[in-house]
Write a sequence for this structure.
């Protein structure tokens, strides 16, 4: 077979069959009627979307949004200066440090989440340490709280925030900072007027790949948050694998897709804004 | 002072990232069943794991899926990157867009799209559904890595080869492949890592006939995770480090040419 045809056909077939078609089917499922026997059947209805406004789910949605926002913020507050430090180390050191950041992935993230349970538990590392130091008499309830969930989500997602930030800082030309200094800009002005605007695409990209996945990480909420359905992911999983209301599960998942579209649009706008302003992107360099 | 602050921050983050792993590794040698106290060095969990057939099966299934998925994703992804880089064809923009969607979508969204398509196509949930979905979610990362490398090399090399009578296959075999080899290796390692780490997508597309590690561990969480899991985590870590060592060696021997 002709190489060219093989490469093109494979690309189109695989992506159509396992990406395009599945997404179209989820969209279709979301407007069907739930059917315990066949999972979903005709007639078409918008019932699933109506249920999104049910106070129980609306509340869960907000709670999930809130936990994800906290996670993103913590990842950003830790990841931003961390990425900045990394980007300023020599290339070989940086490569090694970035590699060390990926190593934990090889023990499956579920197993790592379980290890966090051992840290936060009543007899866990933190409580043992606090009691050993005489700071508290009784163990503090850390596990099965929203705090524990955010702790776990940050743990799993921090590397995903750091990677785009490091590449944003790598693109930052140090001469711009020198120029700003020569022109009399103090540290704060250099940060807010030069560093932050130029690394903004990295900030948005990082936030995007932390915020949305965080809402879906049902196993973190399961292990660290107790039996409550804290995250959107828990509800989606229940609808698909336990209650078997596929149309409602699909509708829930599509709200995530919609949110993703919105954030991507913001990202594209921020990128365009920065490129127009200074012509500092790599295509102009 | 700022230097101290900088390394303090870097050190702190790595402490945070490695503390849970350290606990797993230490506990794998702990003779106590409960991870809170150290009761002396022991290898008994290693021998117990060996005897735990269900867990060993899930472990080897995980490695099998990760290896096959990474290899297939690397092969298909490399071809996709070449197609997107070299050829103009109908649906090219769509293909790029779909890869982008896979890369950006939260796992839970991908998970249900996979579940729905497997049910619709009548593909039984188990080995094949896991393999296909793992290949698919790894693909964009391979494509991006290989594509970036292709962009960096000299187009005229290929034209020269064609002028000298090389066909598409020969151009691929003798020009493109050697040039993108580092990207192909990184793509494979990244895919292997992502596949091994996955929980969410596997939870949705797994079937009763073929269980992989996260699913097995998930079912243990409710009743209490046995210490053999610590051993597994330690072994996974050691195995992956060995793999990366080998990859680094391959690259080093690649360089002087």
């Amino acid at each position: 077979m002709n190489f060219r045809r093989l490469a093109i056909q494979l690309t189109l077939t695989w992506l159509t069959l396992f990406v395009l078609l599945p997404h179209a089917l989820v969209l279709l499922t979301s407007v069907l009627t739930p059917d315990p026997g066949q999972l979903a059947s005709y007639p078409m209805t918008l019932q699933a979307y109506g249920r999104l406004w049910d106070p129980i789910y609306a509340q869960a949605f907000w709670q999930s949004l809130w936990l994800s926002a906290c996670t993103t913020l913590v990842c950003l507050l830790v990841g931003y200066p961390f990425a900045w430090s990394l980007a300023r180390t020599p290339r070989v050191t940086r490569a090694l440090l970035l590699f060390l950041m990926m190593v934990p992935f090889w023990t499956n993230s579920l197993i790592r989440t379980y290890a966090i349970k051992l840290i936060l538990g009543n007899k866990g590392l933190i409580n043992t340490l606090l009691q050993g130091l005489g700071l508290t008499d009784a163990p503090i309830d850390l596990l099965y709280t929203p705090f524990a969930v955010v702790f776990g989500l940050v743990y799993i997602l921090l590397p995903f925030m750091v990677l785009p930030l490091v590449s944003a800082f790598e693109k930052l030309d140090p001469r711009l900072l020198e120029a700003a200094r020569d022109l009399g800009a103090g540290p704060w002005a250099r940060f807010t007027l030069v560093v932050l605007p130029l690394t903004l695409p990295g900030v948005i990209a990082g936030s995007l790949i932390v915020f949305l996945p965080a809402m879906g990480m049902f196993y973190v909420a399961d292990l660290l948050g107790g039996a409550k359905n804290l995250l959107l992911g828990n509800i989606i999983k229940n609808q698909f694998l336990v209650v078997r209301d596929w149309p409602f599960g699909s509708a829930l998942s599509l709200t995530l897709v919609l949110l993703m579209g919105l954030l991507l649009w913001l990202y594209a706008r921020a990128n365009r804004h920065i490129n127009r302003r200074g012509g500092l992107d790599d295509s102009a360099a | 002072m700022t230097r101290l602050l900088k390394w303090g921050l870097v050190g702190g983050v790595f402490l945070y990232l490695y503390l849970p792993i350290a606990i797993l590794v230490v506990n794998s040698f702990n003779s106590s069943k409960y991870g809170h106290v150290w009761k002396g060095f022991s290898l008994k969990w290693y021998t117990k794991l060996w005897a735990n057939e269900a867990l060993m099966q899930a472990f080897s299934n995980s490695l099998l899926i990760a290896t096959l998925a990474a290899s297939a994703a690397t092969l298909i992804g490399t071809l996709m990157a070449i197609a997107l880089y070299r050829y103009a064809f109908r649906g090219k923009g769509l293909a790029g867009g779909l890869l982008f969607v896979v890369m950006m979508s939260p796992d839970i969204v991908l998970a249900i799209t996979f579940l729905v398509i497997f049910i619709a196509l009548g593909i039984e949930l188990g080995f094949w559904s896991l393999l296909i979905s793992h290949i698919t979610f790894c693909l964009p990362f391979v494509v991006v890595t290989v594509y970036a490398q292709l962009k960096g090399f000299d187009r005229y090399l290929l034209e020269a080869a064609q002028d000298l009578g090389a066909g598409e296959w020969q151009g691929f075999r003798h020009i493109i492949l050697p040039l993108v080899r580092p990207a192909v290796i990184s793509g494979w390692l990244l895919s292997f890592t992502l596949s091994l780490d996955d929980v969410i997508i596997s939870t949705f597309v797994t079937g009763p006939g073929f269980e992989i590690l996260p699913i097995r561990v998930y079912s243990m969480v409710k009743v209490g995770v046995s210490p053999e899991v610590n051993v597994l985590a330690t072994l996974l870590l050691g195995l992956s480090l060995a793999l990366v060592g080998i990859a680094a060696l391959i690259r080093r021997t690649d360089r002087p040419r």
